[in-house]
Amino acid sequence: MPNSFGETLQALGVPMFSEPDDAPTAASGQDGSADPGPPGPVGSPAASAPSDPCEFTFIGGAGVGGDYLDALKQSFERGGIAHVHVPNHPAAFPWEVAGDAISIPHVNDLSFAKGLVDTPEARAAAQHSLSLGDEQYNLGGYSYGAAAAAANAYAVAQNGGKVDNLVLLGAPINQDLYDAVTHNPRIKNVVNLDLGAYGDPIHAGMTDGEILRAAPKLAGQWASGQGHFRYSGDGPVFDQRRDELTQQLLDRGLR
Questions:
Q1: Average pLDDT, whole number, for the chain?
Q2: Total-model pTM
Q3: Looking at the domain 33-251, which fold is it?
Q4: Are the C-beta atoms of 129 and 153 separated by less than 8 Å?
C-alpha cells in the first residue's frame, strides 16, 4: 500500500484534512500562480513526446501522480500495448489532490466537454489522431482521469478526429457525457470498467449527488486499497491486479 495521502488518495481523493493557512488554494498553483485547471485535450503533439507519437494516453486519478501510475504504464507495456503515455506528477501536494477530487462535479458532464471543443489543443489532437492512419489512437483514465479522458475524447471526435478505444476505469461521469461518448461514431469502442463487483460506489452515469454520498464509503476503501482503489496500491497483489486489467484491455481490443 502507498504510505502517504498524496500517494494513496489518487483514484478519487476524499478531502479528510484542513488546508494549511499558508498553502495555495485549490484554484492556485504550487507557487500561488493561477492553476491551469483540469487537463485539456491530450495526445496532441504538444502533450506527448514529438519523437514518439502517443497511441494510448492514460490519465490517473486525482492529483495525477503516484507510483501506481508508473506501475500501470509498465503493465500496459508488458502486455504489448504500444506507445503508452501515462502522465505522472508524483510531487502533487495533498491539497492539489483534494482540489482535483472536489472539482470532479465541474468536469464530468457534457457541458464541460463541449467547452473543450473549440480549442487549438482539441483541433491539434484531432489532426494527430488522423495522422496515425490505421494505427490506434486510444485515450483512457482512472476516476478523475476517466472524466478527463471522456471529455477529451468527445472534443477530439467533435473536431473530426478519431478515438479507437476510450477506457473508462471507475469513471465518475454524468449520464449525458457517457451517452455522448458511447453514441459518437468517431469514438469506436468505449471500454467502461466499473468496479462495482469489488464494492466501488463510483460508476459511469452517476449523478453529482451520488458522488458526494459515496464519499464515506470511499474513505474506508482508501485505507484498505479495495473497491475504487483496487489498482492504486503498491506490491505484488496490486501488480497482479494491474496485469489482469491489462489483459482485460487487450481482450477488449487495445493494442
A1: 80
A2: 0.78
A3: Rossmann fold (3.40.50)
A4: no
